[in-house]
Design goal:
Blueprint lengths: L7 H5 L3 H24 L3 H8 L3 H8 L8 H10 L11 H6 L1
């Protein structure tokens, strides 16, 4: 049987810092994409609302995580009218409990 991981990024990334960044990026990207879908508007109108080119909105909707940095996603979330809450957890303590 293979290794079991808390999330996919634990398996794909080589350092805890990379895992943290990719986890944050994926949470933001999913949240932004869900929010845009909730607008129930065309990609063109969504791009206008966000001040982004249409290909960027298409990339968000397609979940293309490598197209956006963590900082990009923070900005896009703000443009989308989303409020961001951050929580930190000690991974070692969480794994022991």
């Amino acid at each position: 049987m293979g290794n079991q991981f808390e999330n996919v990024w634990d398996a794909l990334c080589s350092t805890p810092a990379e895992v943290a960044e990719m986890t944050a990026r994926s949470v933001l990207l999913r949240g932004i994409a869900d929010h845009i879908r909730g607008w129930n508007v065309s990609t063109r109108l969504a791009s206008r609302r966000l001040g982004l080119p249409i290909p960027a909105v298409t990339a968000i909707s397609a979940g293309k995580i490598n197209e956006f940095s963590l900082l990009d996603l923070f900005h896009i979330a703000g443009y989308a009218g989303l409020e961001i809450h951050i929580s930190l957890t000690d991974r070692e303590a969480a794994q022991k409990s």
